[in-house]
Design brief:
Elements: E1 7-8, E2 11-12, H1 13-47, H2 52-61, H3 65-77, H4 86-103
Antiparallel strand pairs: 1-2
Length: 104
């Protein structure tokens, strides 16, 4: 019989497509926000003599695209019903990426 609503790992194809859309949306959104914040802080850094805004600008500039991808995948994965094993693995990988990003 033809299965009109196939599922994988307990989620429909539509649920996976939605999770992928959320992941892409988060990645694009973070990339845009990074650019906007960087531009605003750069203008502010020229006007102030303090080093704090220069430090913020440096940290924003060091944000890796992989960290944004990890955030997007994590946000998308949170919308799916994952089996017991991948759920904690996804959360652990997200924590590791955050720690690595902070360490950079």
């Amino acid at each position: 019989m033809l299965d009109l609503f196939p599922s994988y790992q307990g989620n429909t194809v539509g649920a996976h497509a939605g999770a992928g859309g959320i992941a892409i949306g988060v990645i694009v959104g973070l990339y845009i926000v990074k650019g906007l914040v960087r531009r605003k802080v750069k203008k502010l850094a020229k006007l102030t003599p303090t080093k704090l805004d220069d430090l913020i600008l440096h940290v924003i500039g060091k944000t890796k695209f992989l960290a944004m991808v990890a955030a997007g995948v994590y946000a998308g994965a949170r919308t799916l019903h994952l089996p017991p094993v991948p759920g904690p693995v996804v959360e652990a990988l997200a924590i590791i990426v955050v720690l690595l990003q902070v360490g950079v």
